[in-house]
Amino acid sequence: MVAITINRYVLISRADIYPRIYTPRGICLMLVAVWTISFSLLIPPLLGIWGELGLDESSFSCTILKKNNRSPKKLLFVVGFLLPCLVIIFSYLCIYWRVRKSRRNIKAHMSQGAGQRKSGFVKREDSRVTWLMLTIFLCYLLCYMPLMLANCLEDQVKVPTVHVLASVLAWASAVINPFIYTGTNKLYREAYRQLLCPKRNKVKMGSPVTNPKILNSHSSKVSSQPT
After folding, report:
1. Sign for the pseudo-dihedral over CA of 39, 42, 48, 53
2. What value does the CA radius of gyration of the chain take, rounded to a whole number of Å?
3. Mean pLDDT in each 10-residue stretch from start to end of the chain (227 residues)?
4. N or C, where is the chain less crowded by C-beta within 10 Å?
5. What is the three-class DSSP state of 75?
């Protein structure tokens, strides 16, 4: 999630260096790094050095258990929640500032009449971007904060249903973001439509209204008719 957020930040705020960083080789190295870091965090409990992996009967989940009254579970959940949270806040604030700055520059170069007509559109776009970023951040909190609290307060919260629901919310985060972007961005909706309805696109491209060959032949016939 942090890697995706950084990707969006670089794409929008540092577009000049984006092609040099996100090459096929660079993307493969990033994927390897993400998986390596994720699994390396579980090496201490896997080897029994700091906690151990096992079944927690109180929450019906396979998790990190205490060994010699020590476990890295709380630390991992706190860092795993706060670090992405800080990265998301910083990255989207930078993106928002960049978008506002670009729109202000465009607005400044508009003529006076056009600026008055388009000022309402610019405000609506700023509002849309604000709500989009706020929605993404709130969904992140909704999905991951219950799991973090349930694991950090597991000694006080011994209700299995709470742990199960918190885990379900955390897994649900993987499918929430596509719906957010699809519902708020026309380009995403068009991309999904082309992906999920390829036959409809072919029919639309072959219709008399949108087929370039038919339009050109029709135009030539009209122009050849005597006035």
Report:
1. negative
2. 26
3. 84 86 93 91 88 80 84 86 87 82 71 52 65 82 87 78 86 80 72 76 49 45 40
4. C
5. helix
